[in-house]
Amino acid sequence: MSYNISIVLDKRRAKENGKFPVKLRVYSKSGNSKKVKLYSLDIDLTNDEFETIWINAENKNLRGSNNETRLKLQAIETRANNEAKEMTVFDFAKFETKLFRKSSDKNNVKYHFDLVIQKNRDNNKIGTAESYRCTLNSLAKFSKLKKKCEVEKLTFDMITVDWLKEYQNFMIANGKSYTTVAIYTRTLRVVFNNAIEDNDIIKDNYPFGKNKYKIPRTKKVKKALNSIQLKTLFDVEVLNDNEQQARDFWFFSYASNGMNFKDIALLKYSDIKDEKFSYYRAKTFDKTAEKTEIVIYLTDFTKGIISKYGNKSKTGFVFNIISSKDTAEKQYKKIKNFTRLINDHIKRIAKRNDLPNDISTYWARHSFATNSLRKGASMEFISEALNHSDLSVTKNYFAGFEDEAKKEFANSLLDF
């Protein structure tokens, strides 16, 4: 791709003062495609003034405001060319973002976080945007309290290996887990990589990797109910409609191969055909080029849940959790609130019945995986049912077999 940048006088229409606007002209050619854009510079000149100040380059005797205007235009043209040169492939959107930002934004952490947050919001990835926002808030708190630096002034070169170690200690001291530290520092690493890729910072300042800061690696806690606990939860007496709904939807997820609650909310009547329904997992849909359709066969139980809670018109979304009229942000909030409601009431049930107090919607997926294995399903079958990319991901889902199963197996070894 080739490009050409120049300062021009836009003489298509004179202003009331009889002058014309000076503009930055950017021409780009890629293959058979050509594109020209003009950017206003908030400078107006007559044709003679433009000739004197800009066209006649040999004129070195400019004074006063004329010289100031020439220097300003030179600085704009130089910066525009420098920004364009730094791009591997010229892109108007990126060029505009870089040209019209403050010069200090290149090295500013908050600026780059705001970019990725806005990009995710524009793509309706509200959950991802929220994750970046939470990380930025955490970094801002540490930077202000421990480094006496407002986040607006936090730059990439300030974030060293020692800075990250201090941040980690600060998080742990304030009751955060190593898992949370890992999530936030991985998010920060992505923002670092974005800034490097955009040629806004140099790789020498990168604080992650070998012989540098290492993001904590934590072993996922395996959270699954065993068969006895599942039966207890299924048969337990509920005290109100909210508890009934919590248990019903928890087991709908469990019986639907550990279906994520966001996917339950997004399920439509048009997805249901011939005693089964199919969907694409929202969490991984944009992460893979190959889209894998998940098929779930209906049972009497899952049919009953759809009949009980499904909307009566039997059109659009199956459950009245979100509406097609909702914005992406409103849908995100509604799904989050619904999931919180289920978690609150499933915990109340668990507490009364000696079940794990930290049970949540997340446990339904792990319980499906673990109990499927205990019932003889192959790892390959479960991996496909969970829509995992490979078996190693599936293995992380399994809570070890309960002691009774291990004893039974040990005793059977000599049962020839």
TrEMBL record:
<dbReference type="InterPro" id="IPR050090">
    <property type="entry name" value="Tyrosine_recombinase_XerCD"/>
</dbReference>
<keyword id="KW-0233">DNA recombination</keyword>
<dbReference type="Pfam" id="PF17293">
    <property type="entry name" value="Arm-DNA-bind_5"/>
</dbReference>
<comment type="similarity">
    <text>Belongs to the 'phage' integrase family.</text>
</comment>
<dbReference type="InterPro" id="IPR025269">
    <property type="entry name" value="SAM-like_dom"/>
</dbReference>
<keyword id="KW-0238">DNA-binding</keyword>
<dbReference type="Pfam" id="PF13102">
    <property type="entry name" value="Phage_int_SAM_5"/>
</dbReference>
<feature type="domain" description="Tyr recombinase">
    <location>
        <begin position="220"/>
        <end position="410"/>
    </location>
</feature>
<dbReference type="InterPro" id="IPR013762">
    <property type="entry name" value="Integrase-like_cat_sf"/>
</dbReference>
<dbReference type="InterPro" id="IPR035386">
    <property type="entry name" value="Arm-DNA-bind_5"/>
</dbReference>
<dbReference type="GO" id="GO:0015074">
    <property type="term" value="P:DNA integration"/>
</dbReference>
<dbReference type="GO" id="GO:0003677">
    <property type="term" value="F:DNA binding"/>
</dbReference>
<protein>
    <submittedName>
        <fullName>Site-specific integrase</fullName>
    </submittedName>
</protein>
<dbReference type="GO" id="GO:0006310">
    <property type="term" value="P:DNA recombination"/>
</dbReference>
<dbReference type="InterPro" id="IPR011010">
    <property type="entry name" value="DNA_brk_join_enz"/>
</dbReference>
<dbReference type="InterPro" id="IPR010998">
    <property type="entry name" value="Integrase_recombinase_N"/>
</dbReference>
<dbReference type="Pfam" id="PF00589">
    <property type="entry name" value="Phage_integrase"/>
</dbReference>
<dbReference type="InterPro" id="IPR002104">
    <property type="entry name" value="Integrase_catalytic"/>
</dbReference>
